[in-house]
Specification:
This protein has 371 residues and is of the alpha+beta class. The protein has one domain: Anthranilate synthase. The chain has seven helices and 18 strands. It has helices at 3-15, 98-113, 135-145, 199-216, 251-258, 269-279, 351-369, and strands spanning 20-24, 30-36, 51-55, 64-67, 71-77, 119-129, 150-156, 160-166, 169-174, 177-188, 220-225, 229-233, 236-247, 266-267, 290-301, 315-325, 329-333, 336-345. A nine-stranded antiparallel β-sheet has the order 5-2-1-7-8-17-18-6-14, with helices on both faces. The longest helix has 19 residues, at 351-369.
Length: 371
């Protein structure tokens, strides 16, 4: 399908107030869409269905499913033209919640020093006024700007409109084999990946890696974990370790033990989560939840010679899932955009530095929202 037709379909579905999701996986040129044919709010409890899943940070909200059999599928190829244009005056209007966030971070540091937990991820919601609802236009700009991220536009009339460009894989599954990552630590990209990481940042990334390893070990075989490397996501750098292996259980069990990770919650997870729910001054909803393709069928041919049609019979069909943590995201509400940003707090955190980290992360959305 031509890209103009693809986006026209999205616009028409959105104006009809019908659920849809459009997305592009990292380093891919194909943009996919699922257009649900009714306004029914479907959900999943056991993650055995096929479709696109949108899951919240906590179970106070519904894990929404757009079932494959209830949707029209479409796709297009989009040429990426990387853009580095920043909007002007990008920190205007945010001073009013700086003090609130500094106080929140200090509470987290104090709780860590009082041995309540080792790490907690604390966040805030920043409201930006926009002139009109320009969701599809913003989605296009996200696609052009963040080629290495999972970029999406998700809408359901009973939930709302969400857009994002997230660098973090929660889980990628093909058959029984899986890949995930431990991602933590943040600093601004300044023309080089050769950077120094503080003890605090290295410790934060190690927390996440060790937690994922401990959670997955009972359910996987052949667990492999790489050394941390520096990766670029938009205008930010992170520390990342790649993790892979083979499941010996079902997807629901793995997700139950893996989400939320310390990268979006803290360590120990339950104590940090309780602190977040009691102390943060807003409801995260689907921020720091996860989303993506669930149990789709993928055919792989072992025939590398396209002319040798007879050997096309030697192909395999695998069930694949590609799930991403919902970071660098925003929710659109009338003429306002709600931008969600946060950061990992440890005993060595500095409130002012943590505030500046959230400002940098907010730019991921603002550079496309206000450009």
């Amino acid at each position: 399908m031509r890209s103009d037709d693809f986006f026209s379909n999205l616009e028409h579905h959105f104006r009809s107030n019908l659920p849809f999701v459009a997305y592009r996986k990292p380093n891919d040129s194909s943009v996919n869409g699922l257009l649900q044919n009714t306004k029914t709010l479907f959900s999943t409890q056991n993650f055995t269905e096929s479709g696109f899943v949108f899951s919240p940070f906590s179970d106070s909200h519904t894990t929404v499913l757009m079932p494959l059999e209830q949707c029209k599928s479409l796709s297009c190829t989009l040429e990426v033209e990387a853009s580095n244009n920043y909007y002007q005056n990008r920190v205007e209007g945010i001073a009013h919640n700086k003090k609130q966030h500094l106080n929140l971070v200090q509470k987290g540091i104090d709780a860590i020093k009082n041995a309540q937990f080792q790490k907690v991820v604390l966040s805030r919601c920043e409201i930006v006024d926009v002139s009109e609802n320009q969701s599809i236009s913003v989605f296009k700009r996200l696609l052009q700007t963040y080629s290495t991220a999972f970029v999406y536009c998700w809408f359901h009339p009973k939930v709302g409109l969400w857009l994002g460009a997230t660098p973090e894989i929660l889980l990628s599954v093909s058959g029984s084999r899986f890949k995930t990552m431990a991602l933590a630590g943040t600093q601004a990209f300044k023309d080089s990946l050769d950077v120094n990481w503080t003890t605090k940042e290295q410790e934060e990334q190690e927390f996440v890696t060790n937690y994922i390893e401990a959670k997955l070990k009972p359910f996987v075989d052949g667990l492999k974990i790489s050394e941390p490397t520096t990766v670029k996501a938009g205008n930010l750098l992170h520390l990342q370790s790649d993790i892979s292996g083979t499941f010996n259980t079902d997807l629901q069990t793995v997700l139950k033990h893996l989400h939320p990770t310390p990268a979006v919650c803290g360590l120990p997870v339950e104590k940090a989560k309780t602190f977040i729910l009691e102390t943060e001054s807003y409801d995260r909803e689907y921020y720091t939840g996860f989303l993506g393709e669930l149990n789709l069928k993928e055919t792989t041919s072992r025939n590398t010679n396209r002319r040798n049609v007879e050997n096309n019979a030697y192909s395999t069909v695998k069930t694949v899932s590609h799930l991403f943590v919902n970071l660098r995201c925003m929710q659109s509400n009338n003429n306002q955009a709600l931008i969600y940003v946060g950061g990992g707090i440890t005993k060595d955190s500095n409130p002012e530095d943590e505030w500046q980290e959230t400002v940098s992360k907010a730019e991921t959305m603002k550079r496309v929202l206000l450009s």
